[in-house]
Amino acid sequence: MRLFKVLLAIALTMLVVGTSQAAKKETKVGFVYVSPIGDAGYSYAHDLGRQAVAKMPGVSTSYVESVPEGPDSERVISNMARKGYDVIFSTSFGYMDPTLKVAKRFPKTAFLHCSGFKKSANMGNYFGRMYQARYLSGMVAGYMTKSNTIGYVAAFPIPEVIRGINAFALGLQSVNPQAVVRVVWTKTWYDPATEKEAAKSLLDVGADVIAQHQDSPGPQEAAQEKGVYSIGYNSDMSVFAPKSHLTAPVWNWAPYYTSVVKEVQAGTWKADSAWLGLETGVIALAPYGDMVPQDVRDAVEVRKQEIASGKYKVFAGPIEDQSGKVRIASGKTASDESLLGMMWFVNGVVGTTE
Q1: How far is Cα 129 from Cα 282, in angstroms, rounded to an integer?
Q2: What sequence ranges are listed for the domain ABC transporter substrate-binding protein PnrA-like (predicted)?
């Protein structure tokens, strides 16, 4: 009888320990989004990555959408940290400083900020080399335009957006040196009405392809209503403008998000800066519209493989700015540092960086 009690006690102890260990294995992962998830766009693409994380064993996820940049984001991020989240992804540029502040108060939590450049012992940053896909979409625009005027509805004049416009223009000019890119700033990330009106202003000056750097399909809808082409962003929004949509530079965050969570679970994660290119699968082009000829698709695919392999560099000189000044000399390639701080337009872009 005594032996039975001893064995029972051991079994109960093992059960308690096992239950405790199982409970500890759950990793809580939080995501903070600047816009509504909806069924397309920037936050939608991030949430597809979250959904992939949610399918991982021993993981639970949560998110808060439509969080303004600034004090509100600091409050939301702080709330997640206080609730014991193990990993928090803050997914907009304006969340950088708030994330850094919260990270200092919660040193045991892993924080990752998307599109910024600051980091700390427990805060890393990450982004994709979306300029590579922008270049490819610029090639498509260059082949498809007839007016040689491309309209670009741009969000905020920050390096990320300016870099993308420049890459788009370089891709455009690589196949159509006569074409120009006209830029209109909306100072919005997600405002369908404002972004649609900006696109209309570009259509009024002769643009027959509309590109964009925002989260809404507004610019593409404006293009379709005018009977011209469009190039989207973030996710495949072709359903909103099927007769207009040529393609779009898009995000696929699942590979990165799942890899980070695995590292946190294994105790091997370290804060660093990740800038992910075409070769990682994090960035890509959306499927082409039926109107894009096969020879155009083939030409873009060749260049895509060259960029992914490192054979071709988007920002390789000589590259001039709008004034004709050589910014990247022949035989030189722009450093990541210079790309991350890019605040000038290449020759062939019409507009100001402010």
Answers
A1: 9
A2: 27-303
Task: Tell me: do 197 and 266 sit in the same domain.
Answer: no
Q: Give the span between the Cα atoms of 87 and 347, in whole angstroms.
A: 42
Q: Are 230 and 198 in contact (CB under 8 A)?
A: no
Contacts of 315 by beta carbon, 8 Å cutoff, 6+ apart: 131, 166, 167, 170, 328, 333, 334, 339
Q: pLDDT band at 40, cuts 50/70/90?
A: confident
Instruction: List the domain range (segments joined by +) for residue 157.
Output: 130-248+286-350
Pair (35, 172) in one structural domain = no
Please write the tens of the pLDDT for every residue from 244-283: 999 999 999 999 999 999 999 999 999 999 999 999 999 9
What does the DSSP 8-state code read for residue 286?
P
Q: How many Å apart are CA 190 and CA 307, to the nearest integer?
A: 30
CA gap 161, 152 in Å, rounded = 11
The number of domains in the chain is 2
Asked if 346 and 305 sit in the same domain, the reply is yes
State the CATH number of the domain containing residue 192.
Answer: 3.40.50.2300
